[in-house]
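JOB MANIFEST
job_type = single_chain_structure
chain_count = 1
residues = 139
[input]
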Amino acid sequence: MSGEGPPPGTVVAAAIIHAGAVLAAQRSSPPALAGFWEFPGGKVEPGESEFEALIRECQEELGVTVTPQRFLGEMPSPYGDGSWSVRLWSAELANPDLGLPIALEHLELRWLGTQELSSVNWLPGNRQFEDAVRLLLSE
């Protein structure tokens, strides 16, 4: 990505696709959100592009390098004061031969196919992306 970067208060999330499924991660914290499922990611730091943030967050949270692909959607975060937005990008594992993601900061990871997408208790902000991810998986 180029330009001046995303506006302050941007959270990026990765719909990591591998072998026809998408990765879901179960939160371990904070206590109010623990147990809910999300697409992994996090806050974009000052001076960082969305792609750089996605790559960094996936390395920190999952121990893997991803290659961001395409923008899937954006919505205001349902948490906090409303000044945050969540932007979802599709991504692929840069080198799956080096290993699959591991839960470094999450309780559990699951690979979900189109039929399983609704089987986990998504964070409200992530549930809104189910249809976009379902379309992506059916391509």
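[summary]
The longest helix spans residues 50-62.
The CA atoms of residues 57 and 95 lie 16 Å apart.
exit_status = 0
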